[in-house]
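B., you asked whether I could sanity-check this one before it goes into the benchmark set. Here's the sequence:
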Amino acid sequence: MAADLQKFLFKSKFLRKLERPRTLVVVIVLLGYAVVCTEGQECSLECEHGRCVDNKCICDPGWKGPLCQWCEGRLRLWSNSSVITDGSGNYSTDTQCTWLIDAGRPNTSIRLHFEHFATECSWDHLYVYDGDSIYDPLLAVFSGMVVQDDYRVPHIPEVVAKSGYALLYFYSDAAYNLTGFSISYRIDGCPSTVVGEECSGRGACLEGFCTCDASWGGPACSVPVCPEGCSGNGQCNPEEHRCQCHSGYTGADCSQVIEEGWWEVVGHDITSQLTHPDPMSTLLERSSHATVLIDNITWVIGGYSFTERSFLVRYNITDDTWLPIRSSGIHKPVARYGHTAVVYNGSIYMYGGMKDDGSITRELWRLDTESHKWSLLPSERGERIGGRGRGGGRRGRIGRRERNRRNNRSGRSRENKESNLSNRKDWEEEEEEEEVKPGDDSEEEEEHTNKSEVGGCASAPGPCAPIPCVGHAAVVVHKSKKQVMLVIFGHSSRYGYLNTVQEYDFEQGSWTTVETRGAVVSGVYGHTAIWDPVTTLVYVHGGLLSKVSTSHVVPYLMTYDPIKQKWKLRSPAPVPRFLHSAVLVEGLMLVFGGNTHNDTSFSFGAKCYSADFLAYDIACNSWHSLNKPPNLYLDVARYGHSAVLHQGDMYIIGGFNGKMLGSVLRYHPGLCKTQISSSDECLHNYPGRKCVWNRILTRCESNNNNDKKAYDVCPEVTPKHNFTALCDEQKSCRSCVSNTYGCVWCNNACTYNKCVDYAKPHGVMSLSNGLINKEVPRPTKVVGVASGEGCEDNLRSRCKSLNTCPLCRAHQHCDWLEHQCLVAPNRTSTAGALGETAPNLSLEDIPSTPSIDQTDHQSPVSGGTRNALHSHRPCEPTCAQRTSCSNCTETKGSCMWCFNQQRCVNNNSYLVSFPYGQCREWTTESKRCIGVEPGLSRCSIHQTCKKCQADVACGWCDDGSGTGIGMCMEGGQRGPINPVTGIMQKNKCPKLNWFFTECPLCNCNGHSKCENGSQCILPCANNTAGSHCQYCIEKFFGKPINGGLCQPCMCNEHGDTCNRETGRCNCNTKGVTGDHCERCDTQNNYVGEPLQGSCFYDLQIDYQFTFNLSKIEDRHIRQINFFNVPTKSDVDTDFDIYCSKATKIKISSKTTRSHESWIIRNYTGTRIKRRFSASDYTFGSADNNTTFHVYVYNFTPPIEIVVSFSQHPKLDLIQFFSIFSLCFLVLLTLAAILWKIKQKYDIYTRRQPLRPQQRLLVEMEAMASRPFRPILLELYPRGADAEVLDTNDSTPTTTTTTSITTSTTNTVTSNCCVTGTNGAMPNATSTAIPCLSSNVITKASNKDNSKFCNNSANKVIPNSTSPDSLSSDLLDSLNTLKIKKKVNPSPIALEPCCGNRAAVLSLLVQLPTGGEPYTPIGHPGGLAIASTLVTLGNPRKCSNDPITLAKGDVNKNKTSRGKQPYSSHSPDTCI
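And here's what the prediction gave me:
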């Protein structure tokens, strides 16, 4: 097109003459059009955030991708309003993006409005900071589906930063990627629920606050004064700005029916225009905290929050007041989350949890709610044998303290008041003296680890209690007339997901690991547990379960009987969840919220933040969905919250939905409607409490544990589950029968309701069909196991459920082998010391495993002695025990390293370790690890500005030289920051030299300066090269980045170049190796001293060697050397070398006593052949032998070199053939002599008389040496046409030729005639054809069920029938036939005897039938083998002519008729 345009312009210029101005305009227009068209051709891409150059997108800062469609790096935003997005389509995986919004003035609000947000739940996070760095307060961590279409988690999807800066950091891992986010922001804006409108378009924005129009209220003017017109259930009161609901209705919009249960937000006015109507509610912004209720006081303890909050908060429900509590005393617990708290005798007991540094603790603290004093209780282990009595020692003192405290609580009498106060004072003084310093339990932890490795604590079936754990559940239950605390499941950094039950005795102050029975359960994290005093069971629901390399949210519900110590599975919930809450209300377990999202491939639309409200009917074992909280004009969906029950109302406190929530929701259960008239309607009514039907009064009532005889408790039809699938999930007998699913254990499988009918061998029985007799297994119906008593020992299943090595070996009967937990009976403890017997181990429970070294080990556990067995291989370090990125990622993907937390966690415990997005970046690849020297910060390892700013925590400080040298350090937009204190350190870097969102224009790494602002002046100094002087020149190495130096390559004259970064030399002599070419490759037969000379390949004499230098590692080779030492003293040495291309070759010789002398020097060519005479050189001498050196050099690979040294003596042909002939004659003579000796011996042995046994042996050997061969038989169907015997056809028309060994089927099915082969018999004397022996034929005939018969005129004529018995019609037909076909049997074998004068003849004959058409019973088949002795030689004449029978001659010549009319034997043989 450009050529056509030029041609057009050329013609316009010379062929048409126009006025000059008009011509100039036309030329300019056409040139512009050409440029536009040319650009359109060169760049057809639509770059979203960049420009197209040479059909390639050049992205703007902060963007990447083929079309610049994905965010990357840092971007600073200055405008008053804009939109932040991750790009178009789904965001990129494994990416980091940062946006810094700068309002230009401090203390200015920046309001972020989320228009759309959908990322991978719990893995891809967006962090929002109120400041210019990550060291400023964290406002929110969003993940999962937050805002999409009509769905939104927060009521007002906004976040407000008030510092004048807002830092947004987005991290996506390398797995799933979703649609991303779109966020608009406005400086000094007002809240809104409508995109692009302030105050939702229903008010005016004044200094960041909305002044709403009439009839509208709320912080964003989004709440009507009377919502939904009071739903028709009330009247609007404009003066009070609220609805006045009719009787029986409540709520802001009067939409909630009181009898059905209703929700409210404690202390919240929906029409208030304040974001936080109660300033004290910010004290509750936390998650994974513990909450207990004592009287009317709710205690909130610990929890995770973005900013530091009071560890202990008290809420008075009656007064509706919050109060932070400052603990008294010296020792107090540090911040933690994921712990539990229970109440006993008016005190709060707090156990476990995860601290801020990521460590999991097993501390048990007690809080005196009157003095607000914390005390750390010691970890005394129960079942102590041989220790002090209960009344003495430290345990006795603890018991006295507990009794004194109970006396103080009860105040038994006024007279004892002073005594009680005195005892309390003494107890406190004693406690002060013996108080354990918190956190100083390293020795105890080490002891705990060692004992657990051996096999648990004493006879405990698992790790020693107390176990460090997080995300567990704790309840106080009544057991043996006392109260104990049960700690159920949880997660341990050492053991992984725990399936243990720990029991703490308040009175004794001792811990015990409980050996449970019933179903084999797996440990979970983030579940709930409630104690039902009516059923005396603990109900455990939900949680996060380990699934090999990941984790899975489960809907399980199980019960634990603390008296029987037995687990039982119950109906699972409709949706899985973890980090939810649960309370017990009159026979119902109410479950609210939680995280219901599994891995993206299994999520099925489940949300990160749930507002589901479920009820589990304990009596009916059924789940029901209750009314979710309505539009409360406040954030409702959440996880990580807590719940307590006060006077029948459920209080939900705190939680997380991307932001830390400080609101309190209250649910008021409804009433069982008395106006319900039917039992079914009553029993299906769940107003937040259990309703039952009174059959006597015919009304619906609340469940008060009434007499079931007078009440209907459960409906006839309950929600059904897929019990078949639930039963299939159970892999052990105990789990199969310990549930409510109706499962039966059948043949090592769990089935629903009944066993599948199948046959199981139990004895045999005989079956016969008249032809064959067969023994078959006797079918027996299998009865399944339906109760735990019928199960065999379940030790194998319990060991199999332990999925980590430390947890497996903490159980005394299990061991970890080949990445699985197996039964190890050798690890059982002795029964004498512990007073218990080891379980009986059946052979099925003991798999075939490698033997374990048996060593006696005595461990003083709880005063006892135990013989244990150490496994032959110790457990590998757990992920939590790996302290660096390199050794964390060497586990091949089972561990992941979190950079900002500097922690190594297991893949399946990522959500356990970072449930609220604490990990900003992680990896499982060692190549991404960057070593940090002790004492240095993570930012200091970055040596370039670009890499420095890729880390969200760092900024770049230039040295001001204008050469690009600088230092990476922690900081934000305003300057460096102390990462520990968060205080600015402006003195560390001048403001003009600080770069946070962009890099200096000039970057020459200190080896040059720039011209034109950004171009380095070349050549670079200090032996560097590159556009930014970023690498070393040839023959130098080093890291010139950021002022680094380059050093010359040190290759000891065996190389010129080396790796530019590592300095490893590229050795140019084959066989010379090492980083500096300092040693020979002895493994490949190269020897020498490269520091003083070179390396040589040892060429052995009389061998030819080929060297093919064509591999990639040979690309730097320029020389190869050889040497040879001839060993034969009087033989000349021949040398031959061939090169595939011309090269230079040198050859020298050297003796022990002389220097090296050149034989061939500076030869250039491809081949040399040379003979070195033994007279000129010294060969084969031990003192002064000659060594030849060959140097091949000055070549470039690829090249092939063939080289050899040989010493071959001259061959005397006359001498060789003389010796060969003599040896041959000697061997031939010796063979002839031995043959004659053998003949003489054979003749001698034949003349000796043989004993019977010897003769029998000789005959057996002769029989065994006889030849074998198959014989073909022609089989004719019974009743065949007469054409078979047609005189004009010598070959049957219908024949089947088969081997005799396979003729059974043919003869049985078709009643065939059997004849011999048609033709002459094999002559054994003149041919080498082997004959079939008679005994073999006999064996074959026993298997043959066929009959021999004669076919004639479609009539069956038995062979035993005489002509006298034939009818006249049959004789007439026989007279007219000229039969040429031999139908009589022919010999099937002829075995000549010695001398060939006689032979043994064998043939097939037909057995008599006795006049019956078939052979009589008892004779299998109609054929038999017959043998006779015949003579060989001159035969007598035998008639072979056919005999014709005329009609009427039947009675004539009876003698001739009685003879066999046909002869089928050979004419040369007479029988």
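One thing to flag: The longest helix spans residues 1213-1247. Otherwise nothing jumped out at me.
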